[in-house]
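Pasting as-is:
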Amino acid sequence: MTECKVGIIANPASGKDIRRLVSQALVIGNREKASIVRRMLVGLHAAKADQVWIMPDKFGIGTLAIDELERTYPDTVKNVEILDMEYSGTGIDTIRAMRFMRQMGAGCILVLGGDGTSRLAARECENVPLLPVSTGTNNVLPQFIEGTIAGLAAGLVARAYPAKLDGVVYRSKALDVIVNGTKADSALVDVAALEGSFLGSKAVWEMDSLRQVAVTRASPVNIGLSAIVGMVHPVDMDSPEGAMLRVEQAGRQRVQAAVAPGLIKEICYESVSIMQPGVLYPITAERPLVLALDGEREIYLGEHDQASLQLRLDGPWLVDIDKVMMQAAREKIFVSQQ
């Protein structure tokens, strides 16, 4: 039987950006994140995880979770370790931890954060399934799921990895950003083109500078930039296409969307077009521009930069928690007889 190894990446910075000041976004502090990790560890123990690694951070989310369980349910943390790695308090920690966990044989990675944290983890996950759990602001990929259930599902996936995952994981789409002929980065949910050169606070909440937004998925029930497209042209996560909306400040078509929790904005737009995989779609020629990937400003485009977007269907594998747990029920994995 495959050894069950699981990683936990808990981003201490998720859910703390400037959108907390300009909207009504929920604040999930690091003590609550430690509590979520603690419950995940209980679920992983019940799923008979053989080894669990937790990313270190300056707050000590993993350490706090382990210490509290050692006092109450010590058996649950016998095989749990804080990953032995240097940490900087930046997104590089997520990338480095993901790489280490994958190289050490993890069969599933729990990721606590928002869309941005999932995007960073996806850079190094290769074929290891991710189970994103919402503790961020924009949560299109991450799920609002109880930590105990997330731990159970991750343990079951890791035990089945890599041979028996049909039907319980699915492949996310991705948008590659091509700058001057070279892939610069990728987004899992949306890429937005914003007028100006200011990176500063990475979070995006003002819509006056928005010129274009492309999405891999879009639903009117989502929060964030993808919700703008979702109100006009919903794109299912299973659909082999994306969509691009071109903003026109003088446009006669207008749409209202929840761009952040408790923050609804009206956007004038020119058109919405379908994106097919493998095709290069030009980013608006206006310069300077900043590109926001999954809600965070990341790439500056100067006067001479040429940029385009390309949709692909081979993004990271994501866990479908409902399907994992329903399969466990059908197979009576947690049922025993006296």
